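Researcher: Quick test of sequence recovery. Tokens follow.
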């Protein structure tokens, strides 16, 4: 009777208090794929078929690489198809539409397969496979990546982004003027500022040959979803944007000979895939520190490194090199984390254990 009652009561026990301590990898990856597919849908809506073909080649290569690795090079036969899909989508979105799809398929497949075998897969690898693939493809054919659309004289002006719009590099939306007028009369009027025509188009679709650079408003929406529901940590992205924005604002005019303290932050954030890459590839699993202090150091250093490589914006390849450099720096930060952790154990935990042992032996 007692056993029956115990079993009956245990049926009501569940793990609900612990279900949402952190989201599972399956959930985070599924949401990430859904958000990336919005970018793909926008490519279809804007009839960017060349970009879709390149994206499909990258996606197929990434999934095939995962299958081959699991079948022949790994003892673990479980295929993490969601992760390979994310890596394939990210790689394809960071490549220009002019790149040969066959070359993309071959290079992405070989690069991912070799790096998974040599450096470990998923979170075991210290290097971001997406950044590695894009860098390899860049060195093989750098002519496909778009050059800077502004001259040094243009970059010395207060609103370089406006010059980019005026010289026809960005085709404005038909409704750009009406939306801009509405925002100036309502939201921006509250803070006493106004924006010129063209900035709405820059935010919505800047027309870059690289898909990840285009739809900044969708990227902002994706960041809102990922940060609001704690799918990803906001510390590193927030610190990168803050430090990088400050350097662009105050240091870039000194370098370019422009107006002091008037660097164009809008240009820097809405070009070069800055928002997209900060959200999706800067803090890939296994490539970033774990502790708060390590994340703070990583975020600040990534902003400094990003400014050194990307500069004022308009770089078609600078961000992936920033990620690659941070992948090299991250192990050093993690070593610092480990030493700090072990020092804390030696000075606080070990003496208490010794006292407890002495108490038990007394």
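Model:
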């Amino acid at each position: 009777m007692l056993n029956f009652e115990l079993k009956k009561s245990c049926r009501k026990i569940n793990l609900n208090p612990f279900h949402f301590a952190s989201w599972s990898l399956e959930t985070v990856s599924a949401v990430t794929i859904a958000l990336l597919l919005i970018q793909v849908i926008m490519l279809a809506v804007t009839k960017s078929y060349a970009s879709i073909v390149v994206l499909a080649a990258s996606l197929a290569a990434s999934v095939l690489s995962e299958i081959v690795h699991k079948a022949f090079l790994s003892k673990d036969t479980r295929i993490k198809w969601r992760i390979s899909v994310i890596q394939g989508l990210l790689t394809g979105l960071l490549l220009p539409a002019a790149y040969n799809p066959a070359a993309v398929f071959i290079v992405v497949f070989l690069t991912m397969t070799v790096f998974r075998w040599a450096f470990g897969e998923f979170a075991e690898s210290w290097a971001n496979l997406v950044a590695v693939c894009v860098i390899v493809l860049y060195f093989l054919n750098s002519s496909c990546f778009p050059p800077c659309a502004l001259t040094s004289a243009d970059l010395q002006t207060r609103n370089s982004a406006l010059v980019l719009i005026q010289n026809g590099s960005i085709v404005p939306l038909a409704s750009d003027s009406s939306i801009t007028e509405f925002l100036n009369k309502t939201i921006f009027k509250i803070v006493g500022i106004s924006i010129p025509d063209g900035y709405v188009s820059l935010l919505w679709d800047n027309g870059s040959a690289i898909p990840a650079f285009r739809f900044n408003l969708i990227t902002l929406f994706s960041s809102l979803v990922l940060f609001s529901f704690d799918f990803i940590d906001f510390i590193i992205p927030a610190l990168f944007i803050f430090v990088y924005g400050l350097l662009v604002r105050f240091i870039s005019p000194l370098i370019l000979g422009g107006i002091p303290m008037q660097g164009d932050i809008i240009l820097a954030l809405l070009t070069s895939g800055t928002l997209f890459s900060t959200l999706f590839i800067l803090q890939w699993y296994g490539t970033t520190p774990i502790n708060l202090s390590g994340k703070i150091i990583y975020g600040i250093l990534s902003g400094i490194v990003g400014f050194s490589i990307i500069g004022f914006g308009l770089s078609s390849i600078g961000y992936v090199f920033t990620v690659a450099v941070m992948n090299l720096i991250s192990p050093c930060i993690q070593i610092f984390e480990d030493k700090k952790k072990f020092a804390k154990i030696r000075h606080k935990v070990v003496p208490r254990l010794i006292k407890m042992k002495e108490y038990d032996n007394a």
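Residues 318-361 form the longest helix (44 residues).
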